[in-house]
Amino acid sequence: MIFRFLTSGESHGKCLNAIIEGVPSGVTVDIEFINSELARRQTGYGRGGRMKIETDKAQILSGVRFGKSTGAPICLEIENKDWENWKIPMSNTPVEQTEENTELINSKKIINVRPGHADFAGALKYNHHDVRNVLERSSARETAARVAVGAIAKCILKEFNMDLISYVTQIGNIKAECNENPFDIKSEIENSPLRTFDKSLCEKMKAEIDLAKSNGDTIGGSFKVIIRNVPVGLGSHVQWDRKIDGLLAGAIMSIQAVKSVEIGLGKNSASLPGSKTHDEIFIKDGKYYRKTNNAGGIEAGITNGEDIIITASMKAIPTMVKPLNSIALDKKEAVQAHFERSDTCAVPACAVVAEAMASIIMADALLEKFSHDSTEEMKSNYNGYMNMISER
After folding, report:
1. Contact, 317 vs 346, CB < 8 A?
2. Residues 113-130, mean pLDDT to the nearest whole number
């Protein structure tokens, strides 16, 4: 990848960091926009107590000067405000073994693993006897850094008029499908506590979340991400690891608790004949167009100029007030799974994270196609390419 990034940090550590490489020079980077994206991730009905503690703000530590990227790596940092309460149990250095410190550290030690989380496999893989070493990094808190990186990617997409939106299509058994252009009702979606467009369905979804919470349970759901103003020709058919649908699916599957990703018709294409699956191409006044978009904007790993449509499903969060049966790793005995402060439902937030990951893949595809040294060179190449294909 050209647009590459790494994140670091723990859920209750001092901060989260991200280093991004491959951002061309000349991109307008707005810190207020980055922070507004972080705020979007923290919203949604069903979130837990941590959202009342943290108001995420990013700092740009390098790679940006006077609001423009320089072409050098960009470093972002997000402070964990709850660090004040975790300085001893999450200390980076050895701490004095006083009775008070030992008691505090032991109170945060975890041996009871949670089914569905990274606890069991991670503790065995890395030979940890305190599962907190796994929990802290596998936590969805890490996605705050990804959203900040995605905001940088969106700054690149804005230079080429590419835009994204996400909305929730299902919470538990309550399903909804948007029959309007979601970009036309973007403000309604953004202002909805569940990132949905139907107030009556939103209330039913909230009732599903309330029921799960009253039962000490959690609940999952599905969402869509749509990308518009995508040029023809991003990605490639020539190698498996250059196919843009594979890259998008992999990026979104990497988000904590996501269990499926579909492009266009997705799984529904399995039950349809080819005549009902593929998007016929028409021509009028010398312009190509389609009446359907079952392919979801991608054919053979290449964007075809239509909107990219992604559907993903998030499982219910595995940390529950009413815990599942599990085991204690140190004693090899049956116990109740560990409970730590958690959300009842985080599907709307997951949709925002998916926007970020999709933005990263799309920004990388633009950089690969149109150069990656400077924004001016990219735009020149982009305009030349768009003029060329308009004449075909």
Report:
1. yes
2. 95
- Proportion of the chain above pLDDT 70, given as a percent: 98
Is the predicted pLDDT of residue 330 greater than 90, yes or no? no
Q: Which domains does the chain have, with CATH numbers?
A: 4-390 (3.60.150.10)
- Cα atoms in the Cβ-side hemisphere of radius 13 Å centred on 172: 21
Buried b / exposed e over 256-288, threshold 16 CB at 10 Å, is bbbeebbbbbbeebeeeeeeebbbeeeeeeeee
CB 314 within 8 A of CB 223: yes
DSSP 230: P
> Distance between CA 319 and CA 335 in Å, rounded?
15
Within 10 Å of residue 324's Cβ, how many Cβ atoms? 11
Distance CA 5, CA 75 (A): 10
Angle between helices 347-370 and 143-158 (to 10 degrees): 50
96: Cα separation from own chain's centroid:
39
Return the closest-CA partner of residue 236 out of 146, 144, 185, 304: 304
CB 154 within 8 A of CB 148: no
Across residues 281-298, what is the average pLDDT? Answer: 96
Element (H, E) at 74: strand 74-79
**Per-residue pLDDT tens over the stretch 291-317:** 999 999 999 999 999 999 999 999 999
Over the chain, what is the mean pLDDT? Answer: 95
Q: Which helix (H) or strand (E) holds 61?
A: strand 58-62
Q: Which long-range contacts (CB under 8 A, 24 or more apart) does 264-272 make?
A: 264/293, 264/294, 264/295, 264/296, 264/297, 264/298, 264/309, 265/294, 265/295, 265/296, 266/296, 266/311, 269/294
Residue with tokens 């990605």: 235
Percent of the chain with pLDDT over 90: 90
Q: If you search the block for the tokens 């998916």, which residue do you land on?
A: 354
**pLDDT tens figures, 163-181:** 999 999 999 999 988 888 9
Task: Specify whether the CB–CB gap between 41 and 343 falls below 8 A.
Answer: no
The whole-angstrom separation of Cα 71 and Cα 69 is 6
Which helix (H) or strand (E) segment holds residue 339: the answer is: none
